[in-house]
Amino acid sequence: MTRNSRELDTAMEKLSTGKKINLAADNASGLAITTRMTSQIQGAAAAISNASDAINMVRIADAALIEIESMLQRMRELTLQAASGTVTATDRIYLDAEYQNMLQGIDQIVENTDYNGIALLNNDVAKADRLITFQIGVNASQTKTYFPGVFVDDGSRSNVGAIYQKAPNILSSTLHTGVSSSYAADNFQAALKAIDGALLTVERQYAENGSFINTITRTVDNLFNTQVNTEAARSRIMDSNYARETSNLARTQIVQQAGMAMIAQANALPKTVMMLLSD
User: Fold this and answer.
1) Alpha-carbon distance 269 to 138, whole Å?
2) Three-state secondary-structure class, residue 58
3) Which of 69-73, 111-115, 247-251 has maximum average pLDDT?
């Protein structure tokens, strides 16, 4: 009866909690395994969140680069217009004014583009401080680094705004005084070269951002698969088999009821004997 009562309590506990391992005594090795699995599952959930944040961060930088590219294309168009001999000195002043506004607009985008206070395009800080490390796995070594900013033509990193500021004015400095109507043809060529270099810089960053996003997206997919399959494996070890436990509960209840009936009958037997003797 004591053993059956213990089995009855165990069956009821497994059914009420939904777990077949509630104490280390139930399955010591199984509990240790599922504890590690729980760490993996929760770690995967955190890594998925981190990876999604990383994708959103790079997409913000990508959107800013799209606007910068558009402004650079307009600056190139203005430079080509100003280089034409059909344009007057007054026209060149107007073209140069728009050119300078575009240049300032690019600097503003560079200065203001950030994610949660992290500058994505303005790389005035030291190189080591610009590296962003994302924890995209369940273990300490499973990280991915991202370098905010863009490549200069020589392959080094630099401040985006500073790159564009190197583009010369469309007009010669004398024209800005409003006195001379002459312009330097070399300025147009220098401006075109600088703008084309800046556009190449943006193209390179497009490729880097795109490959980064694609890599992280595949990582997220893999983390989802890992999480789902680890949860399934943990469930097989930890979760109760309701059909089996229901059967055990019914069996132990029947045995308990039968045992109680036998005890009641055994307790009633002396009284029956005494009644017979008294007669």
Assistant:
1) 68
2) helix
3) 69-73
Q: How many whole angstroms separate alpha carbon 171 and alpha carbon 185?
A: 9
One-letter amino acid of 188? F
Tell me whether strands 118-119 and 150-151 are parallel, antiparallel or unpaired: unpaired
CA of 231: how far to CAs of 26, 35, 138, 228, in Å?
A: 20, 12, 14, 5
163-199: pLDDT as tens digits: 444 444 554 333 333 333 345 566 777 778 878 888 8
Residues forming beta bridges with residue 134, ordered by sequence position: 144
Cα torsion angle, 216, 218, 223, 224, sign = positive
3-state SS, residue 177? coil
Query: Quick one: which of 226, 46, 227, 61 has its CA closest to 143?
Result: 46
- What distance in Å separates the CA atoms of residue 237 and residue 171, rounded to the nearest whole number? 76
Residues 144-156 as b or e (16 or more Cβ within 10 Å = b):
bebebbbbbeeee
CATH class of 27-238: mainly alpha
- With both helix axes pointing from N to C terminus, report the angle between 242-278 and 2-17 in degrees, rounded to the nearest 10: 150
- Domain positions in the chain are 1-20+242-279, 27-238
Helix (H) or strand (E) holding 127: helix 127-130
